[in-house]
Amino acid sequence: MAHWTSKSGRARAAFIRTAATAALLAAGLLPGPVQAAGEGATQAYTDTIDAGSSLAGNYLSAWVAGASRDTSAAAFFYREALRDDPRSAELTERAFIALLVEGAYPEAVKLGERIVAKQPANVPAQLVLAVRDFKAKQYAKSRQRFARGGKNRADDLTGTLLSAWSYLGAGNAKKAIETIDAMKGGEGLGVFRDYHAGLIADVAGNVPEAEKRLKAAYDAESRTLRMVDVYGRFLARRGKIDEAKKVYAAFDKLLPRHPIVVDAMAKLDAGKPLDSAVPTVAAGAAEVLYGLGAAGNRQGDELAGMIYLRLALWLDNSNVLTTITLADIYDRLKQLERANDTYEMVPATSPMRRSSDIQIALNLEQLERRPEAVEHLQRILTTSPKDFDTLSALGNVYRSRKDFEKAVDAYTRAIGTLDKVEQGHWSVFYFRGIAYERTKQWPKAEADFRKALELYPDQPLVLNYLGYSWADQHMNIDEAFKMLKRAVEQRPTDGYIVDSLGWAYYRLGRYDEALRFLEKAVELKPADPVINDHLGDVYWKVGRRLEATFQWNHARDLKPEPEDLPKILEKIEKGLPDDPKPAAAEAEPNKASGG
After folding, report:
1. Which of 363, 470, 510, 584 could covalently link to 336 via disulfide, CB atoms 3.0 to 4.6 Å apart?
2. 509 Cβ contact partners less than 8 Å away, ≥ 6 residues apart
3. Dmax of the chain from CA atoms?
4. Which domain holds residue 474?
5. How confident is the model at residue 85 (pLDDT cuts 50, 70, 90)?
6. Is 472 part of a structural domain of the chain?
């Protein structure tokens, strides 16, 4: 999900890798699965995990769990180890981080208090305690903790923004905005100043200041979903419905059919009100933490991202994008069970609920819980039988399990729901084309690939698949070559696309050029059986027959498709026959294309 663009992203990235992140990473835990239930989340593990019989056993188990990205188990074992050695500073810090990532806030707070008693400048511990104080509306105490949490407080984005919101909580809106405007930093921080100053002014009831600041922030970040929704809702609440519609419509052109935008536009068209995206002081502080968590996620700093997102949810869970971003981290880390637990936290009334349910189903498929995956999607279709996204997801599920006939049916049903076919629909034609091709219905496949390119010219995946298919069938060689070269220009490090161009050269009989691309493709995708098989073929043609046999044996060992294995075994035994004439002569350019 896109949250912030590159300019502000650089500013946030500079902050994310501060002493706070260093302290989090120093705790010795890699980012891992998190219990979505919130407070006391690790309790369920006491029923499924047996504690070690010694301090060393629990410590080692915790270390292994952390290394394998299972922070739930790590939290359990560190807690058990602490019972044996409650004075250990190292165990305390490691358990603190693990419990915080778990969302086990009361336990994390207790350990945080123990840490700051000995290390008053410990950044993560002071941050957690400051959020605890903020949540309790002890705003002055919260600000004091921000001051103790870092030496360069003027440059501390988190402390400055949260302090500003604490001033508003204490009833001093003027001081809140002054605190933000005094924030030091380059051009990249300007959007944060305007954004949070605008939000503070809005909550304080200062409409002119809120409008001026939010407009400035929107003008700088008009391609950002959260900014669009915040500003669009503000305009709608001020009665500027047409302007709000334009804001949402502009983003819809950039990223069509996003559920939040679709829902907002439908409500505006129906004359229904849009609530404020950030209505309270707590929601404003949570917005700060959400933004930092999203930046951590995008910059690959998952542990810091999870910490900030957990703290945001602790303060206020009204921003559903916080939950979605947390789930997205688990998806990316392949912690699919935890991702699904987190998606389940999305309220049933949220426009993001259906997307969450679809992702749950796709994760169930990856977890090989295949009946559940289909059942989950079918439940959605029971109430929304013409939902394009759900039908497309069902097609993807069937395609992933190579049930291509059912995939074709699902994609066809999805396409049938469209009143108007737009650029964003290219992928459903592309995927249906693949399913048609795999069921030996080439004319229909070719038509779908052409339609996908009509909607999205130069789309590299489509160029690759269609160009490769033509080259492999000795059809439209000239056009296939142009497509494959264009695809490689766009994705020069994609092994599959580089392989396709190499294979096209091979089919033309231009073996030296084929060799260069196929060797590069194997470097990029060394574990792919098809690419290794292709390299074996070209080695044979250039007289490197021992290397060819080696590549074919390697392709065999990489578990190729059942229909490909007999061909590979035959080549290992007999090699390739000599060409009666060059492949280029056999392939008549632009011969019958099939559609």
Report:
1. 363
2. 579, 582, 583, 584, 585
3. 88
4. 458-595
5. low
6. yes
